[in-house]
Amino acid sequence: MRRMETAGHRRLWEAVLVMALVLGVLQSASCVTFEVKDSANKTCIMADLSVNFTVEYSAGTKQAKASFELPGDSTVGSNSTCGKDKEAPLLVIVFGNHSLSINFTKTDAQYQADELVFTYNLSDKVRFPDAAENGTKEVATNNSAIIAKTNFVYHCINPHQLILGNVNLTFYAVKLEAYLNNNTYSKNESRCSEDATPTSAPTSAPTSAPAPSPTTVPVKQPDVGEYRVNDSTGAACLLAKVGLQLNLTYLRSDGKVVFKEINIIPKNMSVDGKCLNGSASLTLSSKEVFLSFNFTLNTTVSKFYLGEVNLSTTIDDAKVPKFTQENGSLLYLQTTERKSYKCNSKQTFQITENFSIDTYNLQIQAFDINENKFGPAVECAEDQNGMLVPIVVGAALAGLVLIVLIAYLIGRRRSHAGYQTI
């Protein structure tokens, strides 16, 4: 009987070990490592990262959305370089007929991902089924917000999102450093803003580390405001509930580039807007800021989207105090008519090279609003991905409990069999 119990226990622990290994694979499978070396075999760029891609494209007469991860078999492209003379270091990640390029620049105080370019090929029918077009498309940004102190490794566990027109890139579990000195990561870390918590103490840099460029201290998460624009009959044509943070990059009067964050304070804003045939606008203004959003209704595909954003403000220490930015060729927040777009997670919308907007707890709808209330919500990918991890972990734990229970019952049944009368 003791031998039977021992065998049953062994099978139980084997089952537990297998499930533990499965959970370990689930946690680590999507992180990919890259390394760029110069002609002397010296490493200048190292990166361990995971990336989720979401691409909107035309599929016949409809708009489709492709979502995929950076594959584990991605490679370093042959045009990656450590740079020389005035050439900047470049990491090119290749998978299939697609590529992600990250170009770096540095000052004495910090380095940054200066330009990020994603090139994708719609001829890939596995990732883009029923695509109405073929051939290569390219999107880019010069404001990735991937910045670290010199001789520090950039580390970001939480999702860091970039919006490049119709493409949404979400980086997570990122460990990255450019301009390496000793062929490996530095011991000191620069953590991204997404990892920062109100209770975490700031990490003090060694006295020998160079001082960072003066920047504005990050402001707290903005308050959520509720806004409404009415048509000529008094009915709502645009509803918005959102916390807004403006991210500005400008040249200070002393010639240094500075990053500034401005929170929109709902109680200080005057709300205005217009409802026209096929367009609706929301304007928020105060003594310091003028901000407008213009939405367009595409009747062909029965969708509305954010097509234009305008900003005007004054920055006292800027070389040119009047800061104005506008972009009238956007394609954000595409949502089916009579539905609202909802995203509780933080989202970043790149408006121009020097201006982006972070949104929090967003819900918005333009046109065809019934009874002045939001229509059924279309949830953003970030909120859906946020639910995926608990579901996977919960399913894995449930499977583990089930395996343990089955192993226990089998062990009990066989141990009782030893007492049967012969």
Unreliable runs, pLDDT <50, ≥5 residues?
Answer: 1-5, 12-29, 197-217
CATH architecture of the largest domain: Beta Barrel
**Helix-strand pattern, N to C?**
HEEEEEEEEEEEEEEEEEEEEEEEEEEH
Structural class: alpha+beta
Report the span from N to C terminus: 15 Å
In CATH, what is the class of the largest domain?
Mainly Beta
Tally the helices.
2
CATH topology of the largest domain: Porin
Percentage of residues assigned to helices: 10-25%
What is the secondary structure topology, with strand pairs?
Layout: H1 2-28, E1 32-37, E2 43-59, E3 62-69, E4 75-76, E5 90-95, E6 98-106, E7 110-121, E8 136-141, E9 147-149, E10 153-156, E11 160-164, E12 167-178, E13 189-191, E14 224-230, E15 236-251, E16 257-263, E17 270-276, E18 279-285, E19 289-298, E20 303-314, E21 322-327, E22 332-336, E23 340-343, E24 347-352, E25 355-366, E26 377-379, H2 381-417
Parallel strand pairs: 10-13, 23-26
Antiparallel strand pairs: 1-2, 2-3, 2-12, 4-5, 5-6, 6-7, 7-8, 7-9, 10-12, 11-12, 14-15, 15-16, 15-25, 17-18, 18-19, 19-20, 20-21, 20-22, 23-25, 24-25
Helix pairs in contact: 1-2
Characterization of this structure:
The chain has 422 residues and is α+β, with helices and mostly antiparallel strands. It folds into three domains: 55 residues; 183 residues, Porin (Beta Barrel); 156 residues, Porin (Beta Barrel). It is built from two helices and 26 strands. The strands form four sheets. Strands 1, 2, 3, 10, 11, 12 and 13 form a seven-stranded mixed beta sheet that branches. Strands 14, 15, 16, 23, 24, 25 and 26 form a seven-stranded mixed beta sheet that branches. Strands 4, 5, 6, 7, 8 and 9 form a six-stranded antiparallel beta sheet that branches. α1 packs antiparallel against α2. The N terminus is likely disordered.
